[in-house]
Amino acid sequence: MAPHKITLLPGDGIGPEVTASVVAIIECTGVKVDWETYFVGSESLARFGDPLPQEVLDSILRNKVALKGPVTTPVGTGFTSVNVRLRKMLDLYANLRPVKSMPNIITRFENVDLVVVRENTEDLYSGLEHEVVPGVVESLKIITERASTRIARFAFEYARAHGRQKVTAVHKANIMKMSDGLFLDCFRQVSKAYPNIEADDKIVDNLCMQLVINPNQFDVLLLENLYGDIVSDLAAGLVGGLGVVAGANIGENGALFEAVHGSAPDIAGQNKANPLAMLQSAVLMLQHIGEMSAAKRIQDSIVKVLDSGPEHRTRDIGGKGTTSDFTAAMCATLRRGTRAGD
Length: 342
Known about the structure:
This protein has 342 residues and is α/β, with parallel strands linked by helices. It is built from eleven helices and twelve strands. It has helices spanning 15-29, 42-48, 54-63, 82-89, 145-161, 179-191, 204-213, 225-237, 276-288, 292-306, 323-341, and strands at residues 4-9, 33-37, 65-68, 94-100, 113-119, 129-133, 136-139, 166-171, 198-203, 220-223, 248-251, 254-258. It has a ten-stranded mixed beta sheet, sandwiched between helices. A hairpin with a 2-residue loop joins strand 11 and strand 12. Helix 9 (276-288) packs antiparallel against helix 10 (292-306).
């Protein structure tokens, strides 16, 4: 069988370390991948004058799949977020964040298992801002019927494909009656085509309160871009933080799988980074390309490694281990599983 061709963007900060860990773990599953590696962000800007060169976009469009490490985004000044540009330029309209409790990661809640679906292309992230007069800046919130309808359909299709029972639309239509009202109307129209899946809605501030009281009441959450950005991070905090959850950006032109945490330059190169979020994203990627067996083996191995002792867990999740320790434990567990299967 020919190897999968996948675009690899290691990122910066701890990105190259967690990316190398995940590439090694995938190799241990026996899945063959031909990686096309490119750098984006500040290093690419210094080398090529653009933090996101056209050749990177061409590679993703050609391969239809990319795996990406964290990339630093300057705050207030500097270049536009590479993450946002990738989503916009490739029309990766659906951001997918599964959020699930894992063993030996101490949190306030148990058995959390929900999915955040975020519209990725419009809302306030359209970047339409201007200065009206000195000291007054206006940002335009863009909500369209087309984008709202297709993200609602994505959420219901995901729920149906994965045996989920309910989709909850999140909005502020009590105040923004036209923009959020349109988003909610599109959701309700799409829900009619899925009578076997419960459809309800929550005002965003109420949702946030409900999540920190009882997250187990939710299944699939559907949100506009800004609300989705905030709530997906909140939801990650329910299971241990951004260092343990997966992220995917999916559209008709391809799919980009990424760790959703920051680049943590303060610990870069110190062998302290936790590869788990990047690995969870790679599991989604393997499922996307049809490598279900390898994805399941990695998921099972994650549970075993997290359960095997603090020496295999990094310090951010209560362990004593390093990036290398986690990687070695994962590969050893995968190899043992393969031998047992043989």
